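Sample log: Cysteine hydrolase.
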Amino acid sequence: MSKQALIVIDIQNDYFPGGKWTLDDADAAADNAASILEAARARGDLVVHVRHEFESEDAPFFTPGSQGAQIHPKAASRAGEPVLLKHKVNSFLGTGLKPLLDEQNISEITVIGSMSHMCIDAVSRAAADYGYGVTVIHDACATRALEFNGITVPAAQVHAAFMASLAFAYAQVISTEHYLTGAEH
């Protein structure tokens, strides 16, 4: 049986209403994340939290030491659960994530958090490249609308495009309900 880890990416205060960089449906995604956290803990999976801080005080969000850069209460870590600090989009860069997973003989990871089009995408692709089996819980992830070349892409479309891309070649992409029912993932 493979050893599993749940990687909780950037569920931080600035992404929620009143924060500096709010995401669409952040609360609903965090509610699903909380359910997934409880299930992973009950199964005895390794739970790893990743928290992003930019290195500059003039960052648009997640400024060093700010309340906005703290993990949101819905996804709070428990005693003994590692919390890794990152400064880049990819949670493997400049952190101890890969050595931690390897020390625990982890072969399968489940990814939840934010933002779908950035940090979720980056960690999922990197993990697959490292040879881990990757599952992404799509409704426990959140993003926001993006603008490119004068076109605004709604958050739901951004999210769907990135989940479809990950599902094509990098990860199994499933719902919270699928994860919680214990269906093979």
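Observation: The two ends are 12 Å apart (CA to CA).
Observation: The first strand starts at residue 3 and ends at 9.
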